[in-house]
Amino acid sequence: MDALAGLRLALVFTIVAHLSLLARSSSLAPQELQIINAERRIDLTSHIIKVFLTLKVENTGKSPASEVFLAFPPTQADRLAVVKAQAAVGKRKKKTYLPLDVTPTELPDAPNGTKYFSISLLNPLKTGETVTLEVLYILTHSLEPFPAEISQSESQLVYYRDGAIILSPYHIKQQTTFIKTPSTKVESFTRVEPMNRAGTELKYGPYDDHQPYSFSPIIVHFEINNPFAVVEELVREVEISHWGSLQITEHYKLAHAGARHKGVFSRVEYQSRPSFSGVSSFKHLLARLPPRIHSVYYRDGIGNISSSRLRTDSRKSELEIEPRYPLFGGWKATFVIGYGLPLQDFLFESPDGRRYLNFTFGCPLAETVVDKLTIKVVLPEGSKDPSAVVPFPVDQSLETSYSYLDVVGRTVVVLEKKNVVPEHNSPFQVYYKFNPIFMLAEPLMLVSAFFLCFMSYVAYLHIDLSIRK
Ligand SMILES: *[C@@H]1O[C@H](CO)[C@@H](O)[C@H](O)[C@H]1NC(C)=O
Ligand SMILES: *[C@@H]1O[C@H](CO)[C@@H](O)[C@H](O)[C@H]1NC(C)=O
Ligand SMILES: *[C@@H]1O[C@H](CO)[C@@H](O)[C@H](O)[C@H]1NC(C)=O
Predict the structure, then answer these.
(1) Are residues 74 and 105 in the same domain?
(2) Does residue 6 surpass a pLDDT of 60?
């Protein structure tokens, strides 16, 4: 059977990769560039830390430059979930932004284990020219609770460590860093003059003329009671049935990654004084799901949990889920969400005749970090030549699964990614070939099964009759 042959074929995936995991090693030392002005805005209002960096780069060398390097201390590099860059083109009101490729890279003689990313410019930067780059990077697991343990009546305080000066392989003529905290409750911060504090913002700088790799460590100690929702492991199974629906099953291992809870938990106190008690804990989570959702369920090891609310409109569905107990620092909850979606919203035919699923990557829970995400797309029986297109690097593999009535099993496309943040909730596609004759396989199986039953019944009657004679 050629479906079997197809399954056995080693399948080669295509990836549209903006980032390539294979680190390129560049033999060239950084071009002779300098940063005329750098502005960095660090947003500490969530445990998913967003950093916006604007760099005005000038080529002071003799030859054109085609890439600009970003440098990160090794501890930060390990916690980077996203690094994106775009170039500002045009002046003032006509300004537009064009996305640029960013790839991890290595440079010889990196001081103190510095890690690099290379931004590829659209056009080489000629001597004397300047370009303005907008960089966004996202850090996870970078707020350290201190004290590490708090009781139910205490607020959560954390440390954030960084540098007052931007780590860079280039000379920076002028730079400023703004740090935004969730509230004005800042216990302490490192002073590096000139600096200024106003409301929820700390301003470091402006600092003039810093040599490459200048470093000036800072610590900010502040209050944050927003939920530190971390899904340690999430497995999302997306099953395509050509009989009209898409069945989604999501297995969550959720944890509160903030300061650990100490002492006993008092539900009475928790419920009677919600604004003082357990302020850093969370009671419910919001899952943003596609519109036209049906057959929703939410259960854990004990059974169905009825305390969930579903709101739907024409653009989205929102499922508010409430675990059996509020989650405090260090506490965990394991649960499963399942739902069905109309197939025609997600399954399409490409011009070359292949079918494809267009679905959203990432995690539906708002403001959540996923340490390890696995998406399993279960294709209909008889599908061939699957290939996945994901806008960032992911680990891809194939499995075969069997459900009742399956003859040859179903191909499962497995996509895996670590350190996933809401920025990764973008569409991905899984293309495959499908022969509609396979849609008849299941009904034929049923018919033959009935026929066999009928035949054995007839045979049984026949024997029975012959005995009575
Ligand atoms: C590199 O390490 C040395 C010694 O530990 C230290 O003095 C220097 O400030 C560090 N530089 C950076 C960029 O971290
Ligand atoms: C749980 O809920 C689902 C959907 O509402 C239902 O089909 C299933 O029978 C329930 N299971 C139990 C054990 O109550
Ligand atoms: C996938 O769906 C998104 C909207 O959800 C749409 O913007 C995008 O163009 C679709 N991609 C393909 C290849 O159909």
Answers:
(1) yes
(2) no
Number of H helices, E strands in the chain: 4, 32
Decide: pTM greater than 0.90.
Answer: no
358 CB within 6 A, ligand 3: yes
Instruction: Give the whole-angstrom CA distance, residue 345 versus residue 260.
Output: 43
Among the candidates 175, 202, 223, a domain finishes at 223
Classify 423 as helix, strand or coil: helix
Which phi and psi (to 5°) does residue 231 adopt?
Answer: -95, 110
Nearest residue to 162 (alpha-carbon basis) of 79, 247, 285, 68: 79
Domain count, the chain: 2
C-alpha 462/C-alpha 101 separation (Å) is 76
Sequence-ordered list of residues with C-beta below 8 angstroms from that of 172, at least 6 positions apart, any chain: 34, 35, 38, 165, 166, 207, 209, 210, 214
Q: Is residue 129 part of a domain?
A: yes
Which amino acids bring their CB within 6 angstroms of ligand 2?
297, 303-304
How far, in Å, from the CA of 299 to the mean position of ligand 2? 9
78-112 burial, b for 16+ CB within 10 Å, e for fewer? Answer: eebbbbbbbbeeeeeeeeeeeebebbbbebeeeee
Would you give the DSSP letter of residue 135? E
* 179 Cα: distance to centroid of ligand 1 (angstroms): 23
State the Cα angle at 444 between 439 and 446, rounded to 5°: 115
Output the CA 216–ligand 1 centroid distance in Å.
9
Q: What is the pLDDT of residues 411-443, one digit of tens each?
A: 999 999 999 999 999 999 999 998 776 666 666
Q: Is residue 335 a contact partner of residue 305, using CB atoms and an 8 Å limit?
A: yes
Verify whether ligand 3 is closer than 6 Å to residue 429 (CB atom): yes
452, part of any domain: no
Question: Given this model, what pLDDT does residue 10 score?
Answer: 32
